[in-house]
Design brief:
This protein has a three-stranded parallel β-sheet. The protein is mainly alpha-helical and about 325 residues long. The chain is built from 14 helices and five strands. The chain binds tryptophan.
Length: about 325
Amino acid sequence: MANKPIALTGDRPTGSLHLGHYVGSLKNRLLLQETHQQYVMIADVQALTDNFETPEKVRENVLEVAYDYLAVGIDPAKTTIFIQSAIPQIAELTIFYLNLVTINRLQRNPTVKAEIQQKGLEHKLTAGFLCYPVSQAADITFIKAKVVPVGEDQLPMIEQTNEIVRTFNRIYKTDVLVEAQALIPKMARLPGTDGQAKMGKSLGNAIYLSDPTDVLAKKVMSMYTDPDHLKIIDPGKVEGNTVFAYLDEFDPRVEEIEELKAHYRKGGLGDVALKKRLTEVLEKVIAPIRQKRVEIAQDPVHVLSVLKEGCEKTMLEAEKTMVQVRQAMKLDYF
Ligand code: TRP
């Protein structure tokens, strides 16, 4: 265990997790927990950067996300699950890193830029939100993570983290900090049910791991396909068709899917038939997760104890790094 490489990721607790999370990083985490010493963080501090006025929402969703983790099979015996705010060393490290990043550089982070626009934060941009990539650099480095399983929208965060690592090691003449590498899934990002490039809670186009069967079916039936495919006999487009994107990702019967694509392109295959198939395929993925989630959610006290244990273990590791960091920065007075 001790000499396995370290992996770290996290999610903001602003809602329960959806299929975008599943494809984007949960599946990779299930693999990594077999080969790596893995840490999974519930990023409540980061969630607060744009939800600071509704702390109760963040608080509730910490448990929801923990239920999701345990339901998909993140195993606390293999993966350490912890809460960001419980590790004060992350906040300490963030303060040190803020000196190493210019405002200009922060304003150029494409993920943050897109979020500012999407959430309409232009005229009420807080220092906390603009600087969250610095705090994320602290998340990744306090544990010396080498691998970070995330969706491709997080690549700019890893890039910015590694810049900070190099600057820190150069200025303080040390090799305490370790550069990290993103682990991006085969399908870079799962589109939303409306065909938008990204699935997101705030976009209202998400299928949740906790969705009941009827909700799942309804969402699939409303999915974006080819807007020009009006009659069944019409030829249809497969590219940009969300239903086919999902079938490619979730339906293991690859040859059948290729036949369906050919049929759809030629004409004579209706959307409803495809959507029925997709509903069945997704139900197979979600049903066991949903069922396990119900069982887990019956014992929140147990889940909290899992989180507490994870935080205690993580804090010990964090302090080891911080001793080295403070020494490198000449802050080791006593
Ligand atoms: N920014 C990530 C997201 O929005 C969440 C996150 C916070 C994270 N800290 C992290 C991901 C550290 C990976 C590593 O999903």
